[in-house]
Each structure stands twice: as C-alpha cells, then as structure tokens.
Design a protein that fits this description.
Shape of chain A: globular
Largest sheet of chain A: 8 strands, mixed
Helix content of chain A: 25-40%
Strand order of the largest sheet of chain B: 1-3-2
Helix content of chain B: 40-55%
Oligomer: heterodimer
Strand content of chain A: 15-25%
Chain lengths: 445, 557
C-alpha cells in the first residue's frame, strides 16, 4: 500500500480532518501509529530523547550524592557503598546505590545563584533571568532541535508534576508552540483530552465546525488554515490510539511495583515541616509515565518534584523525599536499559542549587550554590564514575568545578544539539543556545 | 565579553552615537505644546493625509489594494473589544445597525470611553505589559493592586505623564500601592528597573548596553549605568506583622545597608557600574544622567528626588521618545500593527513605517498634555482605523492598507466566554479589592485561564500562536461542556424554550458569541445539522460547541 507522507507530515491537513471525521481512522483501518511504522525510515526521529528529573527547592547534596560521614557538616546522614567500588552515596538512596554503575555522579557543580526563582530559571536555561529576553527552557530547545513533530501525534515536550508556577514550562523566545504540554499528575490522564460527548457525536461536531469555518464571511484565509491545522492536530491527539500512552494503569502490576507505585510508607501524607505535603507516589507515577511517553515518541519529558527546600528538619525531610525518588529513579534507568532505550535517552537528575554545609539551629540547611551535585544517566554518558569533588566538609569544590554553562554544553553535546546555534530574539538579537562554558569531557568520554 | 554579537544592534557601520542623534533630533523636534494643539477631527484628517503621502495610498497600484471602510457590525465589535474589552450584547448589535445617525461611530467611541469597562480593559493591558517580564513570580502579588490603580486612573482620565510618574516614584506596600508593580516585577534591581522603564515608557531597549559597549552599539555602557543610577536607592523589604511576613513593600534606602544581605533587600546609596575585568570589585560610581536628553543630577540625591526628577525629564516635551512610545503602542493595538514592530523597540537602528505620521501624532499627543482619551478618540476617527481588517501583511506589502486582525488577550476571551456561556466571571478587581494577596489572585479562574491563553502584549502579534492545550480546553473542557449542555438549565436551555424558531435561534447564538448575524450559508448548514440530529437540543448543543471553537471568537478583526 502506498501512503503519501512527506517530511512535513502525513497527508494534507484538510484531508486528514476529513478522514478523521468521516469515521474511523481512514486508510483501511490503519492506525496512525501503524502508518508511521510503515514509513519508519522516512519519519525516523533523530533518535535521542531526554528525561529531566527536576528537584524543585534544591536538594541537599549531603543527604543524596555527596555525603560527608564522620565530618560535623555531614550531620546524622550515613553513607553506604554502591556497586561501584570506592563510591559511596547517602544511605537514603539504597536502590540507586545498587545501580551506581549506570550513573555519572557530578559532585562539583558550582554556580552563583542562590535564589529559588532565579536559580530555577538558570538551571533550566543556562541563563540568568534578564528583563528583556525570555530564554527557552531546556525541554523547549531539545524539542525544537530534535523532535520530528510530524512523526508523532503526541506533543514533543511534556512536563509532569504540579510544582506551581515557575521556570521549566516556557518556550520563551521560541514561542508558545514550544511551551511544555503540562500534566498535573502522572496518575491521571491529561486534562481536557476526553471529549465531552460520545466519539461519533464528537466527530460530527468536528465536521460541523469544519463546514462552518469554511462558510464564514471574511477573508481571513491564512488564519483559518492555522486554526484548522491546530484542530486537526488536537483532534488527532484526542482520538489517537497513542493516548493510551498517558495511562500508566495499562502497565503490568509487576512494572508498577518495580517503580514503587502503590508502595506506601508510614509517613504517607504527613505534612512536611515547611507545610507542604509530600505527594506520595506521584514522582513514581511521573517516572513510569515518562518512560511510556519516550517510547511513544515524545522527545523531552520533565518530571518535577517539589519540597526540597529543607530549611528545617533537613535530615528527616530529606530522608522522606529520598524515599520518593530512590526506587522510581533507579527503576526508570533499569527499565530503559532493559528495553534497549537507555543509550538514546539521557536522564538528568538535578535541582536549583545545593544546601549549606552548616546545619542551622532548626536542624535545616540553607541555600548553597557554591557546591552541589547532579546525576546523569544513559544518553551515551560515561557512567559508573564520580566527576569532581568537594572538600572534606563539603564547603567548596576542590576538583573539576562545573558551572551551569558547562553542564548545559555537556547535555546538548550528548543529545546532538549544537549549543552554538543562535536563535533570534524579538528585537533581532542573536541568542546562543548556550553562551559560553565548555562540555565536560570526562562525562562524554 | 565572550561573544561580540550577544548584544547587537542592526546596521553595521552606524557610527553616529545615539546620544548625538537624539540631542540633534530633540533640538529640532522638541514638541511645542503651547501653540500647536489642533482639534480631534483636524488631527484625524491630517493623519490620513500624512499616511497617504508617506505610503502612497493615492497611487493607483496601491489605491486598488486599500481595504474599504469596514461595515457597522465589524466596527461595533472592534470598538467594543478595543475599549470595553468585551463584546456588545445582541441588543446593542441590533440598535447600532438600526441607528441612522451620521456620527454614530464617533458617539459609540465617546460612550465607551466614558464606560468604566474602558479603564478596566486597559488596566489589564498595562498590568500584563509590566508583569510579563517579571524577574520573579512572587511579583504577581502586585498584579491586583496595579490593575486597580490603573483602572481608577484611566477611568478618571489621568493623563499618561501622571500615570507613568506614579510607576517611577512608587513607594509602599505592594498589595496596596499599585504604583510599585514595576519595581516589584524587577525585584527592585536598579539595572532591571532601568531596562524596563526604558523599554515600556520610552520604547527603547538599552539593556544590551548593560554589559557591552562596542563600535556598532549606539549606546555606551556608561549611558545604561548612568540611567540605572536613578534607581539604586529603591529597595524591596518584607512587611512584618507580629514577626510574620505579610508581603513586601518598596522603600527608599537612606543609609548604606549591611553587606551580605539577601537579594530581597536590594538597594544601595549609589549605583556602580561593574568592572567586567574584576567582577568582585565595587566598580565605577555613576552619576544619574538621562540618556535621551543628557540632563543630569549629582550623586548623593535622595531616592524620591532622583526618581521625581527623572519623571519630570522623561515626561517633558523635550523628550520626544515619551509621546512616541505611547502613541506607537496604542496605535499598534488599534490598527493591529505599530509604526515600529515590536512596539517596544524604537531604537536608533530601527525605522518607523511612516515616521512623519508617527511624529505628527506624537507631537499632537504631547500638545494635548498626554490625554489618553483624546488619543483613542483621534485614532478611532481615522480612515486607517475604520478600514476592514485583514490578516497580517507580509513584510514587503505596504502597511496600513487595512486594519490588522490579531488574537484577543486572555482577559477579553475569558469575559466573552463568560458572557456567552453564562458562567460567573472571576477576578473582578474594581470595587472588591483583593487583599488576599498572591494566592487568591492565582486561584482565580481568570488567572488560571491566562496561564493557557495569556500572552505578553509587547510580543510581536504574529508570534502569538494558538496552542494545543488551548484547543483542548475549548473543545473538551468539562466546565464548558456543562455550560454548553441544554440539560444543565443554563443559558442554552433557556434559549431553546424561549426561541421556538430554529433560524431565529441560530441568529441569537451567533450574536451572542460572535456579535454578528450568520450569513445564509451558515444558517443553512446549522439548520441542516439540527434537522439531522436526534433531538433539536442536541443539534443546538453542537452549534454552540462550534461557536466556542470558532477561530473568529479568538480574533479581533
């Protein structure tokens, strides 16, 4: 069977809507996904994808990947051995300790931004916020540079987790088209994707809309074409068989269990000292959903988790937060590896900044951008190693300092994005994807 | 700096310094405000003449492309959206069509300028201009008070210089004093305030000069930092009530603060230009100098004296940028395209599409003491405003041959949907001050809606695109599914029982959603659809659903 598919997508838009609305995805009952696979060579995505596990608030490096047992600054947190000889991480992360050979632990991040909003923006864009330019977030850049938008009816940049307003959602100067497609909670299907009527009536409505748009007075032809294209895309999305990718209940119980979904600790639902509730299991659902979406052709997924701002009761709170991330993060890496997708999927774990070596009178740690950790996995990274080091008390970086620009250079290089490429701002000013910094060779191998 | 192109301004080889250009320009073009005031009708007529002269509308090959004067229905909807920020009611549509008075268009404009919805609508516009480029989301606490301040002042027709003076000299609790919004949005950072004041009120983006100074850049780094030197003593402080933080206030610094304060306590006695080679050092002490006119203060002047003096200089007819920036923006909203695009970038390397016309209108605006209602009245009386609309022209086409259609702002769409679907509006500021601060504002349906439908009004409108999440909300939102339903006892149920004639009901629905009568083709398609539906109510539910999803609803023509 001959199916016309150009580089700009399947068929012509108008025909597509006609076919959709005519009932049943046309062309002999083939689903869109089937058609894509028929033309796999033509529509092949460039292959790389990325998952960002975003830790809002700034996790403590001492209680995660850079413990300092035996030093006063280390507090009560103990270290445990990992499956990489000589590398220890915090006892809060036993699952990750067992797969440390799949992780590249960076202990020498060092930036100059210790304020939440600004740091969050900077660690999403590699730029500090300025009044006149809205820099695109990591996901927007990756989606723009790597996604073949025509190849999937799903959005190419999805952000999971309700961590309120803030950086991480915006296409910025790339335009709204590259804003994140937001999902509040990985346990629930995305909002507004279910028609409010039966499917055949919904199709009837789409046909009516199409006819009425065409009959409207006025000369706004260009505008109608855009509108139509958007409605085609949106209805294709809503009616797509791939919509089931968003439903993690389709996963076998064993997989859900591996991610720790359904597991519940004694602390479940207990409010954190900072007044917010740790959303039990939401991060786990987000990780599993991220894997499903990447497999379905989504290029960039951000899974966001809040509450890391441990100004008081740092040890208790960090332990509970780590419980939420340890198993799902490890399961995600393992799952991707077993499915043969890890080499093509870069997984990044990071937050806004680190936390102070000094333990404050409320048993908390404050903001400390001078030295903190991040973790990279998959995506061709040199794993099973620790890059950089802090001094004995974790006060500052003593080996291989890496700033936000170096980190973004590294991320883009491994994904195959040219970080030197320039976008135009609204006033015609060229903005490099990353301005300065250099890739960390130790990570790229 | 590493990249010599990071901050870059057109025209390689432009060696004239902007300062010199502006000084020379203002020497000739300083607006004479005493004797040159002309009547509204006269100004409108001369704008049309001036555009015809500058753009060649009288040449046959161009004249044939001029859009005709728009019909009454489109005009009514356009003026309503532009001034009141919402649609006319079906009754108003009929009354306007039936009115045979020759001056009914001018009267309509007059009526809406006197309607409190005018102030509310433009308050929301300026609120977005100021808040969209905030450095910090906490600044949103100031959104409600800013909107309230603007709505009151615009409705009282406080002139533009007075309103801008308010934003330049804002002080006090940000939840109460709307004039603090710009300072709050920029975290009281002198450099960021300077960038935004220049961009928003002067249409000049000098922020590039913050770190660069190279041969092709018309602004010197010094000029940027001299301008920033009007704002060092602005600081942002937490407001404490019984030891608990209750928001923020903008305050003046009166003595050198302690070292090592957190960023929220910004402010210092003087502004220093950082030394790029030695970022740790304090840098060079800067004297406050206004780059557009060269007027200067000494260091050591108290905070409000600095800012007040700057307000005087900025709003003086000597500074032609002030009137031009506002005129360019308002023209951009009303004609659908500014003389400069984007509207906040009128820098020296840029060319206006019709510079003499802009200059003439700006001069008249200054001569009318920056009277905003005068400006609306004047622009809305021009042929250019009253032409039928077209989609955005391609760059090579002559501008202003037609009015330009563009996406309505989020607030306008929200109000139109609330009105048409009959759901209660939220987020009404006037008469009911928020008080509850950020959380209450953010939880409002109106604000939530704006997270999906909002855009920065300074953005080029051609870049304001629709998105999939927007489309999904319009198609599948449960809330609106309910509102659309004939079973819910809502607006449609009422109409189904009140209006028994199908054709008439189609007409009512079109009036309600699109403020126009359906054409024959639309009526036929709708009637046919109702006939082929299982129940009459099903058919009309589907029609309402399509009206909700029409591109027309999203655009101002």
């Amino acid at each position: 069977m001959q199916i016309g598919m150009g580089p700009r997508g399947v068929l012509n838009r108008r025909h597509f809507l006609r076919n959709v609305t005519a009932g049943g995805l046309a062309l002999g009952g083939l689903s869109f996904t089937d058609m894509v696979s028929l033309n796999a060579s033509e529509l092949k995505r460039r292959g790389m994808s990325c998952i960002l596990l975003w830790m809002q608030g700034g996790p403590s490096q001492f209680e995660t990947f850079d413990p300092k047992p035996g030093h006063a600054n280390g507090g009560e947190t103990k270290a445990i051995a990992t499956n990489v000889p000589g590398t220890q991480i915090s006892e809060n992360l036993p699952h990750l300790a067992r797969i440390a050979d799949q992780l590249a632990i960076v202990r020498s991040l060092s930036t100059k931004e210790g304020e939440h909003q600004r740091a969050s923006y900077m660690m999403h864009t590699s730029y500090i916020p300025t009044a006149t330019v809205r820099y695109p977030t990591l996901g927007a850049v990756v989606a723009k540079e790597l996604a073949d938008q025509a190849a999937s009816e799903l959005p190419s940049f999805v952000r999971i987790g309700n961590v309120g307003i803030g950086a991480g959602n915006e296409g910025g100067l790339l335009g709204q088209k590259f804003n994140a497609y937001p999902i509040q909670d990985g346990n629930r299907p995305p909002e507004n994707t279910r028609p409010t009527t039966e499917e055949d009536r919904y199709r009837r409505r789409l046909t009516l809309l199409d006819r009425l748009e065409e009959a409207a007075p006025g000369e706004a032809v260009a505008r109608r074409a855009d509108h139509e294209s958007l409605y085609n895309q949106a209805s294709r999305f809503v009616l797509s068989p791939s919509m089931s990718s968003f439903d993690i209940s389709n996963e076998p119980e064993s997989v859900r269990k591996a991610y720790g979904i359904g597991a519940s600790s004694a602390d479940a639902g207990r409010p954190a000292p900072n007044g917010l509730r740790i959303q039990q299991g939401q991060f786990a659902a987000g990780c599993l959903l991220a894997r499903r979406l990447i497999e379905s052709g989504v290029t960039f997924v951000e899974v966001a988790m809040g509450n890391w701002d441990t100004h008081q009761d740092n040890f208790d709170l960090s332990r509970r937060l780590c419980e939420q991330i340890d198993q799902p993060f490890a399961a995600l890496v393992e799952d991707l590896r077993q499915r043969g997708r890890l080499d093509k999927t870069l997984v990044i774990w990071m937050g806004e900044f680190g936390r102070t070596p000094r333990i404050n009178p409320r048993g908390g740690r404050d903001h400390h951008p001078q030295s903190f950790s991040a973790v990279l996995a998959g995506g061709g990274m040199q794993v099973g190693q620790v890059v950089g080091a802090t001094d004995a008390g974790g006060e500052r970086v003593v080996e291989r300092p890496i700033n936000e620009k170096d980190l973004f250079q590294t991320i883009y290089q491994t994904l195959g994005v040219n970080a030197k490429k320039e976008y135009m701002s609204a006033i015609g000013r060229p903005i490099a994807i990353v301005d300065g910094g250099s890739p960390v060779d130790e990570l790229l191998g | 700096m590493k990249s010599s192109r990071t901050c870059w301004l057109v025209l390689v080889g432009l060696v004239t310094s902007f300062n010199a250009a502006v000084v020379a320009d203002s020497a000739q073009a300083e607006y004479n405000t005493a004797s040159s005031q002309q009547s509204t009708g006269e100004v409108s007529r001369r704008i049309d003449e001036s555009l015809t002269g500058e753009l060649g509308f009288d040449k046959p090959e161009i004249k044939s492309h001029l859009a005709p004067r728009t019909d009454d229905q489109t005009f009514l909807r356009r003026v309503y959206l532009d001034l009141a920020g919402e649609l006319p009611t079906p009754t108003e549509v009929s009354l306007f069509a039936l009115d045979t008075a020759a001056d009914k268009r001018a009267k309509l404009v007059e009526r809406l300028l006197a309607d409190p919805r005018y102030g509310r609508n433009w308050a929301r516009f300026w609120r977005d201009v100021i808040m969209y480029r905030r450095a910090d989301d906490r600044a949103l606490i100031a959104a409600a008070s800013a909107e309230r301040f603007l709505a009151e002042n615009l409705n009282e027709n406080k002139h533009w210089d007075e309103i801008v003076r308010g934003f330049l000299t804002g002080l006090g609790n940000i939840s109460e004093k709307g004039t603090t919004a710009l300072i709050m949005a920029q975290q009281a950072d002198a450099s960021n305030i300077a960038s935004e004041v220049s961009r928003i009120f002067l249409g000049v983006q000098i922020s590039c000069a913050q770190c660069h100074d190279h041969p092709y850049d018309p602004w010197k780094r010094e000029q940027f930092h001299q301008f920033a030197a009007f704002f060092p003593r602005v600081s942002l402080r937490p407001v404490l009530v019984n030891g608990q933080q209750r928001g923020f206030e903008v305050a003046s610094v009166t003595r050198e603060p302690f070292q090592g304060r957190p960023a929220a306590f910004r402010g210092s006695m003087e502004h220093y230009m950082p030394d790029l080679k030695d970022p740790a050092s304090r840098g060079t002490l800067m004297t406050p100098i206004f780059f557009a006119t060269g007027e200067k203060l000494e260091t050591g002047v108290a905070d409000l004296d600095r800012r007040g003096q700057l307000a005087d200089w900025m709003t003086s007819p000597k500074n032609v940028l002030f009137a031009k920036a506002l005129v360019n923006r308002v023209w951009g909203e009303l004609a659908g395209e500014g003389f400069y695009e984007p509207v906040d970038d009128m820098g020296p390397g840029r060319k206006a599409t019709a510079p003499q016309t802009l200059d003439y209108l700006a001069q008249q605006f200054a001569a009318h003491q920056y009277d905003l209602k005068w400006l609306f009245r004047t622009i809305m009386a021009t042929d250019t405003y009253q032409r039928a609309s077209r989609p955005r022209r391609s760059p090579n086409d002559t501008p202003f041959l037609a009015n330009t259609s563009y996406r309505v702002r989020s607030d306008v769409l929200y109000d139109n949907l609330a009105q048409a679907l009959g759901f209660p509006r939220q987020g009404e500021v006037s008469g009911n001050p928020y008080g509850g601060g950020q959380q209450r504002f953010l939880n409002q349906g109106r604000y939530q809606f704006s997270l999906t439908f909002g855009y920065d009004p300074s953005e080029r409108r051609e870049n304001v695109a629709s998105s999939i999440p927007q489309t999904l909300i319009l198609m599948n939102s449960r809330q609106w599914g309910q509102a659309v339903s004939a079973q819910s006892g809502g607006a449609l149920a009422q109409m189904l029982s009140d209006v028994r004639d199908d054709e008439q009901l189609v007409g009512e629905l079109y009036l309600r959603f699109l403020a126009r009568e359906p054409n024959d083709a639309e009526i036929n398609i709708c009637l046919e659809h109702v006939k082929s539906s299982e129940r009459r109510s099903d058919g009309f539910e589907d029609i309402v659903w399509t009206l909700l999803n029409r591109s027309e609803l999203l655009y101002r023509n």
